[in-house]
């Protein structure tokens, strides 16, 4: 049968030739030259006017687009083939260029900080600064809490080999790893990404075998992963200490434009509602003929009759369901499939996981995943398309105003995912199919409420221990197990002690605490979905307006303006969870004996 949509993305339309592209190499050479020239220009401070500094901010935004364009291309190259040696070299190159750009922005921040109140007022009232007033105020306020410009620049320079290099080292180790698994009488080698898909296999014996071998693979390299994690955390903690920051959550909350009280009330409300989800997991265990769920059973199918969804069918379903709420989302998704913006092919050598990255100059996005036909894969595909649509509606904004935080980034993606999942449940033709689809939705909820919570608990506790010195593999395993048991209310028969090693997010250097924003985005999107379900012809435009404000507002202000809710209070979070509980109740009723 002819396949309608290509499962291999088109990168040549961005830069032809892959990791050996001469066009891309020239782009990097030109970018390096431009960065050096602009650095020299910034050193000329004599006689500079407020208008000149505004022009420099504009130029910095344009250069920032180029840095992002290059970084996005390299991330695609290194993900599609972890053994691409040329791509690995390019990763180092872009880290160096990004460091230079960060130094440029520190110089600009220094200038913003040096303005008198009267000069600052004049500066932000200039015509070419009006669209980024929020972002300029944010940068100025954050600069007040950091070290002097020279010291911050030194940190950025040292971070290339003393911080980001540990993240690169993690990727190098993962790239060489294989997972040995028995298939019949044969032993086969799988990439980490392929083995991860086996953890959700229909056959429990396959899942358990995959889990055992997967854990062994990570255990084998655990000493190396303990090194990467310890040194990443050590660099961050020393930086925080130098700045006088005591709380390890200060930076992640600042990055996510979010108050501590918002984070606290979100987790508190979730924890109060966990018993209901423990009840769901108990029912699922019973349906599977188990006393308790093993970690790999949470996402296991309840029915052996669940059909795999072809990539083309998944694409058509997503395109159709997006149209229930937003014709513009439908048109966008169709374009993404038709223009081959998605890398979904199941093959060895790919990085595990999924992501969406955007090219601000080309005004395009690329989505990466490994598609194998499961309901979870359909959800991931919709999720990443939500990310891409979010960027799409912001393409005409200034670069600074496009830089939305991770928590609100997860809003658009999760909204897209929920739209597709909810529609498939409503359209289920049989009771068995409806139960399975509800289960798919609920195990996603368990992921956000329990799995993500365990990551948050682990990372918080690990950082506190790391302040006292290096943390051993054995202790890392122990902290991970304790966090998982607490987050899952001790409801599972077995946990994943090496999850701290296998989860890429713990080793990412781009942002710290790559966990709680997922749960925030999930529940925030449920609030948006509730309003979308109420109808109203203007929903699409209101939704786009919310997305466009995500890069220029604190999340509390964003929620107040566009949803008229106070997210520092439990009421909003409880209402979002109650919406999810409707699925839980339907599942429990359908599965009663």
TrEMBL record:
<keyword id="KW-0645">Protease</keyword>
<feature type="domain" description="Peptidase M3A/M3B catalytic">
    <location>
        <begin position="200"/>
        <end position="578"/>
    </location>
</feature>
<dbReference type="InterPro" id="IPR042088">
    <property type="entry name" value="OligoPept_F_C"/>
</dbReference>
<keyword id="KW-0482">Metalloprotease</keyword>
<dbReference type="InterPro" id="IPR001333">
    <property type="entry name" value="Peptidase_M32_Taq"/>
</dbReference>
<keyword id="KW-0862">Zinc</keyword>
<comment type="similarity">
    <text>Belongs to the peptidase M3 family.</text>
</comment>
<keyword id="KW-0378">Hydrolase</keyword>
<dbReference type="InterPro" id="IPR011977">
    <property type="entry name" value="Pept_M3B_clade3"/>
</dbReference>
<dbReference type="Pfam" id="PF01432">
    <property type="entry name" value="Peptidase_M3"/>
</dbReference>
<feature type="domain" description="Oligopeptidase F N-terminal">
    <location>
        <begin position="112"/>
        <end position="178"/>
    </location>
</feature>
<dbReference type="Pfam" id="PF08439">
    <property type="entry name" value="Peptidase_M3_N"/>
</dbReference>
<dbReference type="InterPro" id="IPR013647">
    <property type="entry name" value="OligopepF_N_dom"/>
</dbReference>
<keyword id="KW-0479">Metal-binding</keyword>
<dbReference type="InterPro" id="IPR034006">
    <property type="entry name" value="M3B_PepF_2"/>
</dbReference>
<protein>
    <submittedName>
        <fullName>M3 family oligoendopeptidase</fullName>
    </submittedName>
</protein>
<dbReference type="InterPro" id="IPR001567">
    <property type="entry name" value="Pept_M3A_M3B_dom"/>
</dbReference>
């Amino acid at each position: 049968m002819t396949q309608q949509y290509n499962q291999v993305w088109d990168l040549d339309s961005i830069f032809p030739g892959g990791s050996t592209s001469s066009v891309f190499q020239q782009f990097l050479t030109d970018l390096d030259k431009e960065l050096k020239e602009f650095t020299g220009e910034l050193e000329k401070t004599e006689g500079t006017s407020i208008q000149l500094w505004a022009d420099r901010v504009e130029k910095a935004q344009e250069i920032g687009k180029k840095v992002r364009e290059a970084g996005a291309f390299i991330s695609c190259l290194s993900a599609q083939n972890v053994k691409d040696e040329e791509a690995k070299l390019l990763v180092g190159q872009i880290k160096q260029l990004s460091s230079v750009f960060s130094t440029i922005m520190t110089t600009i921040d220094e200038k913003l900080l040096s303005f008198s109140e009267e000069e600052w007022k004049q500066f932000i009232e200039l015509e070419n600064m009006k669209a980024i007033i929020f972002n300029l105020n944010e940068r100025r306020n954050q600069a007040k809490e950091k070290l002097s410009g020279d010291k911050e620049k030194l940190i950025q320079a040292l971070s290339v080999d003393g911080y980001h290099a540990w993240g690169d080292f993690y990727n190098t180790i993962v790239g060489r790893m294989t997972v040995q698994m028995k298939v019949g009488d044969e032993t086969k080698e799988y990439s980490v990404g392929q083995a991860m898909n086996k953890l959700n296999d229909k056959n429990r014996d396959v899942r358990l075998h995959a889990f055992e071998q997967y854990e062994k693979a990570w255990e084998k390299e655990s000493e190396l992963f303990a090194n990467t994690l310890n040194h990443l955390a050590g660099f961050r903690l020393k930086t925080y200490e130098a700045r006088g920051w005591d709380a390890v959550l200060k930076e992640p909350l600042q990055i996510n434009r979010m108050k501590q009280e918002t984070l606290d009330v979100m987790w508190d409300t979730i924890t109060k509602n966990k018993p209901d989800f423990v009840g769901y997991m108990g029912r699922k265990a019973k349906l599977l003929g188990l006393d308790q769920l093993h970690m790999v059973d949470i996402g296991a199918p309840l029915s052996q009759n669940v059909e795999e969804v072809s990539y083309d069918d998944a694409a058509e379903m997503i395109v159709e369901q997006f149209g229930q709420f937003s014709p513009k989302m439908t048109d966008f998704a169709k374009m993404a499939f038709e223009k081959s913006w998605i890398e979904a092919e199941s093959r060895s050598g790919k990085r595990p996981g999924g992501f969406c990255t955007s090219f601000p100059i080309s005004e395009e996005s690329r989505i990466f995943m490994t598609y194998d036909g499961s309901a979870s894969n359909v959800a991931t595909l919709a999720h990443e398309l939500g990310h891409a649509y979010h960027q799409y509606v912001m393409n005409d904004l200034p670069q600074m105003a496009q830089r939305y935080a991770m928590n609100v980034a997860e809003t658009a993606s999760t909204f897209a995912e929920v739209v597709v999942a909810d529609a498939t449940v409503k359209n289920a033709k049989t009771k068995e199919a409806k139960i399975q689809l509800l289960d798919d939705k609920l195990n996603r909820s368990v992921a956000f409420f329990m799995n993500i919570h365990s990551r948050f608990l682990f990372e918080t506790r690990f950082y506190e221990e790391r302040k006292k010195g290096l943390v051993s593999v054995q202790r890392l395993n122990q902290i991970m197990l304790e966090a998982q048991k607490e987050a899952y209310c001790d409801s599972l028969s077995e946990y994943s002690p090496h999850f701290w090693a296998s989860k890429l997010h713990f080793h990412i250097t781009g942002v710290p605490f790559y966990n709680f924003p997922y749960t925030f985005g999930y529940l925030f999107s449920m609030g948006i979905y509730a309003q979308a379900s109420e109808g109203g012809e203007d929903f699409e435009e209101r939704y786009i307006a919310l997305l466009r404000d995500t890069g220029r507002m604190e999340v509390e202000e964003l929620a107040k303006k566009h949803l008229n809710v106070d997210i520092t209070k439990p009421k909003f979070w409880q209402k979002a969870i109650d919406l999810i509980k409707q699925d839980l109740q339907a599942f429990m009723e359908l599965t009663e004996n």
